[in-house]
Design brief:
This protein is α+β, with helices and mostly antiparallel strands. The protein contains five helices and 13 strands.
């Protein structure tokens, strides 16, 4: 089943979930992500005030709507119409967001380990991580936690056997072939490689996040002084 083939299922009394591709076989790809991003834009436009929220994931889209303004039948018919209408979907769609990173073996304690495991220098690891353009595949775990993929296979690393009780806000990390920036201090088991001064979630601003599903992200290396000047804080681990 291709990303263009979709399945709509009831998720609750006021929501549907749309599966892109085979719902029994999760596929993570730029094509699926681009299709979901396109669907998000179309649903927002078509539903208008009837829409309460959209929750996009790797291969699905949850559509939550206002039952005071529409019913199940209207919502499903509208979704089917949107999905069956041919759309030009570009894998290069979404905005390109540059996110600064202070790569550091002191504040990113797994940076040395990744280099050793790959047989590369720390500088090469930084070059590879920052040279890759990532897709925002999903947002979850915590508000503002964007799952970005895919990491170069030379940098891929499993989650830590024992998660840390506290990972600082702004920590840049890798797990398997994904990378992310922790939006807030929290427990976590990803491999830390540096710090980012850009807030990844702010409830007081619109939009709340600098990225959304379907966007593209490129990390830009900065030094410690630049990090501090941009408002970053140094956290001891």
């Amino acid at each position: 089943m291709s990303p263009n083939q979709t399945h709509i299922a009831i998720a609750s009394e006021n929501s549907y979930i749309i599966y892109f591709g085979d719902p029994d076989s999760l596929q993570i790809s730029p094509e699926v992500s681009a299709a979901i991003a396109s669907a998000c834009a179309q649903v927002k436009q078509h539903f208008g005030t009837k829409l309460i929220d959209l929750v996009a994931s790797y291969a699905s889209l949850l559509v939550i709507y206002d039952t005071h303004q529409c019913d199940h039948l209207w919502a499903k018919t509208a979704l089917r119409l949107i999905l069956d209408t041919p759309q030009q979907v570009s894998q290069n769609g979404g905005q390109l967001v540059e996110i600064p990173v202070f790569y550091s073996t002191k504040y990113g304690p797994e940076l040395n380990l990744l280099a050793q495991n790959a047989g590369l220098s720390v500088e090469q690891i930084i070059d590879i991580h920052s040279a890759t353009e990532y897709r925002v595949y999903a947002i979850g775990f915590a508000p503002g936690f964007a799952y970005l993929g895919e990491v170069d296979e030379r940098l891929a690393a499993p989650r830590l056997a024992t998660p840390r009780l506290k990972v600082p806000a702004g920590a840049v990390a890798i797990a398997d072939r994904q990378t992310a920036v922790y939006p807030a201090s929290s427990p976590g088991g990803w491999n830390l490689i540096g710090l980012c001064p850009t807030p990844m979630f702010n409830a007081q601003t619109q939009p709340h996040m600098p990225v959304t599903v379907g966007d593209r992200v490129r990390f830009v290396p900065i030094d410690e002084q630049q990090y501090l000047t941009m408002g970053g804080l140094l956290h001891e681990l």
